[in-house]
Structure formats: structure tokens, C-alpha cells
């Protein structure tokens, strides 16, 4: 062996030893780093199992709305309460859902989303149990408040899905599947609720709600992972309280304005002033506090106001149309079709829910390919076309026409626009505060629902017509022995009643107003920035 070969051999051996030493040192460093900074190993949860858990959780919330709606008349009869009191119980639930939606997603960022989801599911179980066993309207209202804690179920589940599914296109498709249950499962839950109410009483519905929520609890425990935001600062409870007061005041003011001519306008004015004052206080708190619920920089950003204004106007333009005007038109024997109450859902809400449920996954696929904003604007645009076609239906009442209108709005709003608005609330949220925008977006949904009835019904009322009806009151003073007196009393008990009822112009005006509001929604959607995904 030459001296040169020996020298090369030594160099190769030294190089190999050095590389082995580096590899050994690197492995040892990783091992030491892992021992110093232990990370909790994640269980290999299946996406399918996660989707089932989140789907059942969302469904348990949706049952509080869709399944109970057909049982309201049964509640009135079995509890011996008035229609106004039944309406108050429903208002309590929706108000509770709106308030909890404002801050629970943000609280979940701090203490863990799985913990909060299990907490609201447990509250739903307890609330359902209380509502099922009580005969006291006050206790029933408490039960409904506890059920209302599930209001942020949708945004919370979508955030948990986003934490697990990082790919934006895949998330869009899965998100649409979850959001499609937001209107019920193709109307079947509402039909089952009506059947159970007539066969077993309204209490049976609350027992079903409790069982579904218990099932959701077990699924969440065993198939989901805990997640929270990186920022572990303390919760801004002063911001929560002031924002809740501002929101609640505005919500009650809107609810009062729905009474139209019977509304107490001084109360509405006072509540609006209270809402403005507390929102200013909330703004000042968020500006100066170190750990704000919502940074004022975020509130100024167009991702916030662009999305919230679009959600508000979209809900205002559509919600009362499908959940009020169309149903009223279907039963109206003077200017509408004159269907019986039992047939109305099969022509309106059932086809609306079916197509919305089926179109959800399709809209998610389109969003993954073309983007949320483009699909959202397409859905709103088709909704505008649907309302303009609704003018023709209102002028030419027919069952096929009304069913076609319901299907068109089911596709465009329930199957597209509603899903895109929920999805944008998640994908536009900043990484250091993922809970604020979904919570505020849920508040915009609730405010829009209330404003929709207030605005559209107020416009409809301007075109109502007065009709004269004869009303025969029961006469207990009629004597069988005096036929002449009986005849006289019978005449005296026939009274004339002047009643204000919707005209064809009333229904047409509602369609026009809804379309105008949706045009505003499209314009506001131009402010929505492109998501980072």
C-alpha cells in the first residue's frame, strides 16, 4: 500500500466516524429535547369517527328547533298556557343561544374546545330532562335556557374540524357536510316531531333530545382530541359582559319592534340607546386591555365587517320569507293558496330542507375548487332570482309554483349561502384568535333572523287590506221558552269585525324587499377578503 492510499484511507475513516458521531449526537439531542419538552401523544382518531361525533353534536342542537316546532300547539294544550307564553318560551331559547354564541367559542380557545363542547352537551342533556318532567312554565324556561347553551354548537364543531383537517380543500368539503344538517335532516326530524307530539305528547320530544345529546357526549369523549389556541391568556370577562348587554338590548329591541302597531316605541328607543352605550364601553375595554376578547384592530378589519354585514343582510332578506311569508301565503284562503296546516310543510319546508341537505356537500366541493366567496355570491344571486320569481308565484297562486320557490331557495340559501357564510367564519379567523369571528358571525345570524321578521312584516303591513267579517258570539242568555227573545238575542250576538289581512301586494312587497336586502348582501360580500387557505 502506498503512502497516498494509506492517507486516503485514514481520511475516509475519519469522515465516517465524524458522520456517525454527528448522527449519534443528533439522535441524543432529539431524545433529550423530547424528555425536556414532553408532548402529549395524539391518539390516532379517525376522521370518519370525528365527523360522526360532530355531526351528532350539531344534530342534537338542531333538534331543539326543528323537532319542537310542530309541537308548539301541543305544548299550549298540555301545559294549559297561552300562545303568547309558548312564544315566550321559544324566545327565551333563541335569546340564550344567541348570547352563548358570542363568547363560548372564544372561551374554548382558552380552556379547550373539547371541554366546552362536552359542557354544552351536558347542559343540553340536563335542560332536556328538566323540560321533559316539569309542568311549570318557569322551570320549563330554565330548561330551555340550558338547551340554548348549545347555540354555538356549529361554529365550535367547525373549529374543531379545522384543527384536525389542515388541507383547505378537504376541509371545505367536510365542513359543508356538517353544515348541511343545520336545517335538519331533509325535514324528517320535523315530521317525526309532529308525529311524536300527536301520538305521545310534546314531552317525548324532549326525551329524544336528551338521548341524542347523551349519545353525542360519549362520541365526543372517545373520538375527539382536545385543542386550544396558542395564546393562553385569561378570558376577558368584562368584554363578554358589556358585549352581551349590548347584544341583548338590541335583540330585545328587535323582538319588540316585531309587534308593529302594538310595539312600545319608547322601550325600543331606550334599548337601542343602552345597546349603543354598552358597545362603546366594550370598544374602550378592548382597546386598552392586554388580553381582549376581540382586538379592535380585528374589529376594524374588513374580514370582520365584510362577513358580519353580509351574514346580517342575507339572513334578513331570506329568513322571514321561508319561515313566515311563504307559510302564511300557503294557508291564506283570500290572497294565497288556502292549504290546510297539515299539508303546508309538505309543499314548503320539507322540499326546502331536502334540497338544502342534499346540496350542502356539492357546495363544499365547489368552494374547494372555486373559493368560498365566489360560491357565496352565486348562492345569493340565485336567491335574488328566486325572490323575483316569487313575485310571479304571489300573483298566480299555485301549489307547484310555491313548491318550486321553496326548492329554489332551499338550493340557493340553505344549500349554498348559509353553508358558505358559516365556513367563512372559520377560514377568515386569525390564528391567534380563532373563536371571535365564528361567535360574532353566529350573533349576526341571530340578529338577522329577528330583523327579517321586523322589516319584512312591517313592509307587508303597509299593503294589508281591511275586510269585514261577521262573528257570532256564544249566547248563554237565550231562553228556550221565549223564541222571540232568543231570536232577538241571537241578532245582538252577531257582531261585525274589521280585520286587516295581507293582500297580493303585501306578499309581492315582501319578495321585493327581500331581493333588495340580498342585493345589499352581495355588495357587502365584496368587502370579504380572500381566505388565507
UniProtKB/TrEMBL annotation:
SUPFAM superfamilies: MFS general substrate transporter. The chain crosses the membrane at residues 45-65, 85-104, 116-139, 145-162, 174-198, 204-223, 235-254, 266-285, 305-326, 346-368, 375-393, 399-421, 442-463, 507-528. It is found in: Cell membrane. It is a multi-pass membrane protein. GO terms for molecular function: transmembrane transporter activity. GO terms for cellular component: plasma membrane. It comes from the Bacteria. Keywords: Membrane, Transmembrane, Transmembrane helix. Residues 1-19 have a biased composition (Basic and acidic residues). PANTHER family: BLL0718 PROTEIN, MAJOR FACILITATOR SUPERFAMILY MULTIDRUG TRANSPORTER MFSC. This is Transporter, major facilitator family protein. It comes from Gardnerella vaginalis.
Amino acid at each position: 500500500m502506498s503512502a497516498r492510499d494509506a492517507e486516503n484511507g485514514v481520511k475516509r475513516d475519519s469522515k465516517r466516524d465524524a458522520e456517525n458521531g454527528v448522527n449519534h449526537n443528533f439522535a441524543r439531542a432529539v431524545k433529550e429535547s423530547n424528555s425536556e419538552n414532553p408532548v402529549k401523544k395524539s391518539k390516532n382518531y379517525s376522521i370518519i369517527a370525528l365527523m360522526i361525533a360532530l355531526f351528532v353534536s350539531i344534530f342534537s342542537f338542531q333538534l331543539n328547533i326543528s323537532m319542537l316546532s310542530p309541537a308548539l300547539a301541543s305544548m299550549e294544550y298540555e301545559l294549559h298556557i297561552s300562545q303568547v307564553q309558548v312564544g315566550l318560551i321559544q324566545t327565551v331559547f333563541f335569546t340564550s343561544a344567541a348570547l352563548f354564541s358570542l363568547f363560548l367559542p372564544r372561551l374554548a380557545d382558552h380552556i379547550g374546545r373539547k371541554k366546552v363542547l362536552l359542557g354544552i352537551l351536558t347542559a343540553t342533556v340536563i335542560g332536556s330532562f328538566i323540560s321533559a318532567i316539569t309542568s311549570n312554565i318557569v322551570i320549563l324556561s330554565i330548561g330551555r335556557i340550558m338547551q340554548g347553551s348549545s347555540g354555538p354548537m356549529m361554529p365550535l364543531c367547525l373549529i374543531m374540524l379545522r384543527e384536525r383537517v389542515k388541507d383547505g380543500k378537504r376541509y371545505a368539503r367536510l365542513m359543508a357536510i356538517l353544515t348541511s344538517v343545520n336545517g335538519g335532516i331533509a325535514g324528517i326530524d320535523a315530521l317525526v316531531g309532529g308525529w311524536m307530539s300527536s301520538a305521545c305528547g310534546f314531552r317525548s320530544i324532549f326525551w329524544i333530545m336528551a338521548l341524542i345529546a347523551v349519545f353525542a357526549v360519549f362520541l365526543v369523549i372517545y373520538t375527539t382530541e382536545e385543542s386550544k389556541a396558542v395564546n393562553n391568556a385569561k378570558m376577558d370577562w368584562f368584554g363578554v359582559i358589556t358585549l352581551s348587554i349590548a347584544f341583548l338590548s338590541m335583540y330585545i329591541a328587535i323582538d319588540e319592534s316585531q309587534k308593529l302597531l302594538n310595539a312600545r316605541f319608547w322601550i325600543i328607543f331606550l334599548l337601542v340607546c343602552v345597546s349603543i352605550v354598552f358597545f362603546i364601553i366594550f370598544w374602550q375595554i378592548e382597546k386598552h386591555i392586554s388580553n381582549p376578547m376581540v382586538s379592535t384592530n380585528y374589529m376594524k378589519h374588513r374580514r370582520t365587517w365584510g362577513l358580519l354585514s353580509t351574514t346580517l343582510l342575507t339572513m334578513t332578506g331570506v329568513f322571514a320569507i321561508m319561515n313566515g311569508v311563504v307559510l302564511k301565503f300557503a294557508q291564506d284562503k283570500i290572497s294565497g293558496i288556502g292549504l290546510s296546516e297539515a299539508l303546508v310543510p309538505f309543499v314548503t319546508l320539507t322540499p326546502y330542507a331536502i334540497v338544502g341537505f342534499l346540496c350542502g356537500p356539492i357546495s363544499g366541493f365547489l368552494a374547494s375548487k372555486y373559493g368560498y366567496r365566489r360560491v357565496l355570491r352565486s348562492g345569493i344571486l340565485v336567491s335574488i332570482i328566486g325572490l323575483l320569481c316569487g313575485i310571479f308565484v304571489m300573483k298566480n297562486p299555485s301549489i307547484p309554483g310555491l313548491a318550486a320557490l321553496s326548492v329554489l331557495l332551499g338550493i340557493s340559501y340553505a344549500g349554498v349561502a348559509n353553508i358558505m357564510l358559516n365556513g367563512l367564519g372559520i377560514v377568515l379567523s386569525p390564528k391567534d384568535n380563532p373563536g371571535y369571528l365564528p361567535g360574532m358571525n353566529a350573533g349576526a345570524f341571530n340578529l338577522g333572523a329577528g330583523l327579517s321578521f321586523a322589516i319584512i312584516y312591517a313592509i307587508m303591513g303597509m299593503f294589508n287590506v281591511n275586510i269585514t267579517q261577521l262573528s257570532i258570539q256564544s249566547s248563554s242568555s237565550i231562553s228556550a221558552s221565549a223564541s222571540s227573545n232568543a231570536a232577538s238575542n241571537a241578532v245582538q250576538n252577531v257582531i261585525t269585525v274589521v280585520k286587516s289581512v295581507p293582500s297580493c301586494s303585501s306578499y309581492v312587497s315582501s319578495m321585493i324587499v327581500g331581493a333588495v336586502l340580498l342585493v345589499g348582501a352581495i355588495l357587502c360580500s365584496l368587502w370579504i377578503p380572500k381566505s388565507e387557505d
